[in-house]
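USER:
I would value a second opinion on how I read folds in token form. Give me a protein, with the fold worked out from its sequence. Write it directly below this note and I will take it from there.

ASSISTANT:
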Amino acid sequence: MTALSAEPIEAAPDVPTPDQVRRAPKVLLHDHLDGGLRPATVAELAAEIGHELPVPGAVADPDALGRWFRESADSGSLERYLETFVHTVAVMQTPEALARVARECVEDLATDGVVYAEVRYAPEQHVEQGLSLDDVVAAVQQGFDEGVGAVAAAGGRIVVRQLLTAMRHQARSMEIAELAVAWRDRGVAGFDIAGAEAGFPPTRHLDAFEYLQRESSHFTIHAGEAFGLPSIWEAIQWCGADRLGHGVRIVDDVEVGEDGSVRLGRLAAYVRDTRIPLELCPASNVQTGAAASIAEHPIGLLRDLRFRVTVNTDNRLMSDTSMSAEMLALVEAFGWGLTDLRWVTINAMKSAFLPFDERLEIIDEVIKPGYAALGC
């Protein structure tokens, strides 16, 4: 165990206004394409293909559909949370639908002040109407390119990359890993596995991770969201993950004494010492029961202890959230200031699956000047 001071970092004096948070440049590493659709888009695409939605008249009342997604996801169960994706995935089975969803994703993120994003999805879930895996990736890339172009035409700037996800309860991880490598110079930044953690350890996909390592390719692993320390340990020490998707349960290896002293277990110390990024998603973590509330979310402690903390949305539709909303919630819960938001933003950009010089350019030319303009 590693003992250290538990002196919290003082709340920053530069507490931002909601408008400042909205205008602040943001970096998003953990966002699911099929979890971020506009309710109106779900309703329109469902009507086109005859897919039955749980809210009658959703085309005329997309707000009601949005509320259904949020309320259904507010269950405290990861498994129930994942059930909401049945309806979004169902309407994302054609090139046109995939491109539209991807384009709107970019536009929505840019409107929220996001300047760099890695958006993930599972290609294997979008082949029900005969698309090949390659077709799926191409359609999503077309949408991203269109979105980036539209943002640029409006005077904005955003860089978006794909993360290709394999479902941990299926057996296509090697196929998806090979797809990620084939597309890595054409818009794909890396690989991921996702889905229910219990009973489906990341080591089931060890061949895919070993292949990615041989190909010098980046990957993150959903771990430490619902299943705790064993999944984190396997993701890092067996599979070699570059980042932890969520990783919130690393706090289970952090002991805080009554006197405020802190002792890190060996795994927590390793994660901190080696600067393994944590893709924390506060609103989603509360929904799935990984944290009791935003005020009790481990992100406050992990930030004070200087873990490589990043802030993310996970599923903007299901959590009815945005990067601005996530950041504002942390400002309110922990007294974070602009300096804290700048710190987690630079953390995220440092941790992006993007070449070093491109990361540095965004930090120096976009993030730092953006926060300087806000007085930080």
